[in-house]
Amino acid sequence: MNWVDRWGVTLTVFLPTLGVALMMLTPRAKDGLIKGLALLASAAALLTSLLVMARFDSSDPGMQFEVNVRWIPSIGANYHIGLDGIALPLFVLSAFMTFLCMVYSLWHLPEPYNPKAFLALCLLLETGMTGTFVALDLVLFFVFWEMVLVPMYFIIGLWGGPRRQYAAIKFFLYTLFGSVFMLLGFLALYFQSTPHTFDILALQRDGVLDVPVGIANLIFLGMGLGFAIKVPMWPFHTWLPDAHTEAPTVGSVLLAAVMLKMGTYGFLRISIPILPGPARTFAPLIGVLAAIAIIYGALNCLAQSDLKRLVAFSSVGHMGFVMLGIATMTASGFNAAVFGMVAHGIITGMLFFLAGSIHERYHTREIPELSGMSHQLPRMAGILAFCAIASLGLPGLAGFWGEVMALLSSYRPAPGLSTTIFRTLMVVGGIGTVLTAGYFLWMLQRVNMGRLSEKWKEKKLADVQPLEFASWIPLLLLVVLLGVYPRLVFDATNPASVRLTEALTAGSETATAGPPQVSIDLIGR
Amino acid sequence: MQIDLVAVLPELILTVALCGILTIDLFLPEGRRWLAMPLSVVGVAATLAAVINLAGGRHVTFGGMFVVDRFSVLFKVIFCVAALIVFLISHDYLKDDEIHQGEYYTLILSSLLGMLTIASSRDLILIFVALELISLPTFVLAGVRKSDVKSNEASLKFFLFGVLSTTVMLFGMSLIYGLTGSTNLTAISQALEAGSGLDQIAILSIFFIIVGFGFKVSIFPFQWWVPDTYEGSPVPIAAFLSVASKTAGFVGLFQVMFIAFGGLADVWRPFLGLLGVLTMTFGNLVALWQRHLIRLLAYSSIGQAGYILIPLGVASATNRDLNNEVFFASVAYLLIYAFMETGAFAAAIAFGRKGGGYLVSDYAGLFSRAPALALVMAIFLLSLAGMFPLAGWAAKFFVFKTLIDGQGVWLAVIMAINTVIALFYYAAVVKRMFFDEAEDSRVIKVPVPLAGALAATSAVVLVVGVLPDLFGQLARQSVPF
User: Which of A336, B77, B142, B391 could form a disulfide linkage to A406, CB 3.0–4.6 angstroms apart?
Assistant: First the structure.
């Protein structure tokens, strides 16, 4: 299986693009063929990503499957890709979610009906997403990062809800605004490094330590702006509710499940390892913003009457937990962050699927109007209850580990960070989990329970369809599996996270030297 | 004086073709006038072959006035290709519009002759002559639709502004001649270095020369003629002006600034940096309000001129490596710009020529009427906006990199903000094409020559977007100093 080592990652990234090329050559009228090609391309990408996962050595904290080829010599950019334990879960998640979206799309295609364009854009999106998680060159990273913008703009703008045009342009401009500053940060890194390089690993290794503190801080903030908008961190989140709510179901799923993670991943892959000093300086700020996001997201959710918008705002809160984990700068915090990303991807992706399917049946997402769903669509209601409970972080389901570990690691943040601040943040986050439980349970109470409204009594509504089951069951199983056996993710992430903290302490002059913290004994290591 | 005929062979071929076509046209019967176009294509193709034949070598002739090196060959190729594309997009446009074909094509050819010359000019007099040769035919071309008032206005405005600015430039050139006693760029540079260096008259002269080129390349505040002229001219001529003529202006500007005034970079650097900032900001802000696509493209091309110019804002009098970077970024941007801008104009003609209209609102629902045309238009617009995987991203990336390299962080930040502003109006057109309902359901047929031009330019934009080094290396190797 040597070819997997060399080509597996590249194939996963570009098989979807190949699928797009084939679809472009297919006449628009050949509907079935187009859908088949799209499904096949995403299945092939999923297969190669799983092969990569099977060959991944989780005891190795370094990069695996590295490929490094010259790409744009005139600016010193290379096609340098590779995976470590932090990237692998997200990489597989992207391929997995896109495949499920393709399965879902076999039946449910948003209006106006145009499978060729819609599926092609989704596949282009996949290339951008998987590419971002494997890029080890700043230019390559930037290119993949930008590549998701245009497809998502069209997906929202063409197939979205009533306010789609506003949402699409807002998403586009917001993200572009962030990414140009990210680009300036990248370029500054390039010129501050000796010898000049865009290589992320080289930048991590040699560091940019002799950069004046002020400049390093500015670079961190510039890149951080790009990442923070993508996450999104409070107060840069305002594009998210609109984009999520207006996007068609598959668009929301991919946006929530994968695209948001690009931002948090950027912190883990680029900002923190390359600029450990500024990362430590700004960690409390990031933590505070994360805590605000948790509370703010939860309070907003309490005020929402639109089911999809509620799920969208819940993302703000969940990503807050992820950022809180990152802000602690500890191995367990990083583990929690990656786990939180995966869990949020699966659970919130699932919730968006549900919101889409419910809207398709009722033609409304207004929570008050949906009351009594369990009488009419018992299976749908059951799955909704399951996902909502998973999302609020019930132990035994996937949502639990990311949140609780993020809170635990803020009890003891990395040496040099203020324990007072982070313990306060832990308390605030704890209050956030209560609020989260509150709004999800309240939502369930209003949607699932209660009396069936007169409007729906006469209507014959179909419960969960076979193709919906086909695309959902893998997700539901994963929610349980990750809940009871979190080591599935932690085993991969832990060595890489530990190495990341080692790099942090090694690169600091101020931090008191202490043993790197490895505190996931919690789960029996 | 020995004259190297091989070095001037392209120009000679083009001159022969130009005179030949003009003569042949006189004797063609009314129904055969279209022959001017294929004949011009043959003429330019032969010229192009002669240019490519010169690639790699270095020729200096006419006493150092005329130099053929990588830089000039690169741009001669670009000019020839641009002219060929303009011929392709003119073909069906002229059929619809009843314009005297013979004079139309020969005027383009004579302007092209000027462009070929300016790419090799290393002497102020030759640069001036070449610039005039470029400009005079375009004054006429802008007004070639004689019965159209807007076309008349376009021509007149263009002419008046053009003459004024050339006068100013000529004055600047005469000052520097008086100061240094030479019109040769290298000799001027040496004389300035030997002299006191910072002479008031030299500064004044640089200023005047920049004004002259500023008109040609439409940088703020010398851009007022651009929107009206582009709108009133035949659209293929607008494309020719915004691509070939603008590129020629930049080619002249780069040579004068770097070769003759390289040692005085400290004087002109802040000035050109400021002009770059003003140009892009003005172009992009005004473009936001445009409802006519050609005017929108005109303002967008002003914005783009700002991006091409701004690397000069970090040039250095002493640091040769940095100047190489600056030159590389501007030239690479110029190359990529030529293709995406021509493509955008070609797409506008493909849509507008059969009464499709040139208003942005006319583009509503184009995706449902002509998906392929909407797609290529979106490719060109999003490339101009700098989206991956289209060539425009690489162009912007090169410029950003150079700005950061030269400590021009503020220039980079302003350009970054401009990029976001510009996306707004490019995306607005894309939005019209893809998201809005079509009011008109007539199918749009794209004639073969236009489709060929669209296919060629969009292919270049896509391929260079993924492999920017195809142009990057060309630009890198072209540095003439």
Answer: A336
Residues of chain B contacting A172 with CB distance shorter than 8 Å: 423, 427
* B387 → closest Cβ in A73, A146, A164: A146
ipTM attached to this prediction: 0.81
Alpha-carbon span A442 to A420, nearest angstrom: 33
Helices (H), A414-460: 419-447, 454-457
* Region class of A396: left (phi > 0), else alpha (psi between -120 and 50), else beta: left
User: In angstroms, rounded to a whole number, what is the distance separating the alpha carbons of residues A394 and A404?
Assistant: 10
Q: Which position has the token pair 């260096």?
A: B197
Task: HSE, CB side, 13 Å, CA atoms: give it for residue A310.
Answer: 28
Shortest Cα–Cα distance, A519 to chain B (Å): 42
Predicted confidence pLDDT, tens digits, chain A (525 residues): 678 788 888 888 999 999 888 888 888 778 888 888 889 999 999 999 999 988 888 888 888 888 888 888 888 888 999 998 889 999 999 999 999 888 888 877 877 778 888 888 999 999 999 999 999 999 999 999 988 888 898 888 888 888 888 888 888 888 888 888 898 888 888 888 877 888 888 888 876 667 788 888 888 999 999 999 988 888 888 888 888 888 888 999 998 889 999 999 999 999 888 888 888 889 899 999 999 999 998 998 888 888 888 888 898 989 999 999 999 888 888 999 999 999 999 999 999 988 888 888 888 888 878 777 887 888 888 888 899 988 888 888 888 888 888 888 888 888 888 888 888 888 999 999 999 988 888 888 888 887 777 777 777 777 778 888 888 888 899 999 988 888 888 888 888 888 888 877 765 444 333 333 444 444 433
> pTM for this one?
0.87
Alpha helix locations (H) across B233-370?
235-240, 246-254, 265-287, 293-309, 320-352, 366-369
Interface test with A, best of B367, B431, B437, B461 (most A CBs within 10 A): B431
- Our CA-based measurement puts residue B418 at a distance from the nearest CA of chain A, in whole angstroms, of 10
List of E strands, A39-174: 64-72, 77-83
